[in-house]
Amino acid sequence: MSEWMATMLRQTLWLFATALVVAGCGPAGPDVQFVEGVVTFDGEPFAGAAVAFTPAAPGGIPAAGKTDAEGRFRLNATQGKMYGKGTVVGDYIVTVTKLFWPEGATEPDHITPLIYENSKNSPLRATIVKGRNTFEFALTSKAK
Length: 144
What we know:
The protein has one domain (35-139): Immunoglobulin-like, CATH 2.60.40. It is globular and about 45 Å long. A hairpin with an 8-residue loop joins strand 8 and strand 9. The chain has two helices and eleven strands, in the order H-E-E-E-E-E-E-E-E-E-H-E-E. By secondary structure, it is α+β, with helices and mostly antiparallel strands. It has a five-stranded antiparallel sheet. Strands 1, 2, 5 and 11 form a four-stranded mixed sheet that branches.
């Protein structure tokens, strides 16, 4: 075997070994639990809203989803296992945000009352347990 071929073989084996270490032998990340739910606004399905779960204490993992035409959402953890949907067990502050950009506007209009959009003020809470988690959040335009 020529020196060039030996060098190429060593580099190929090194790259392959590095790829295995980086990729791991299975899904990486923490064990997430399935989370889904429904958001209504003044009793109607709230389509097109961003739903975010922010950990109430250290150790949680932020997760987010978007509501469909029926107001349903499923969360995806930002650091979950490869096929995990949801987030890790724990307590979360929930925010819901829906914006509308009028033509020619420089800033969006908030469709949701601001209290639901800020994790420091949001009254919405969720506790994630092991297994399947389903929530219903009923928002109102009268919230202050």
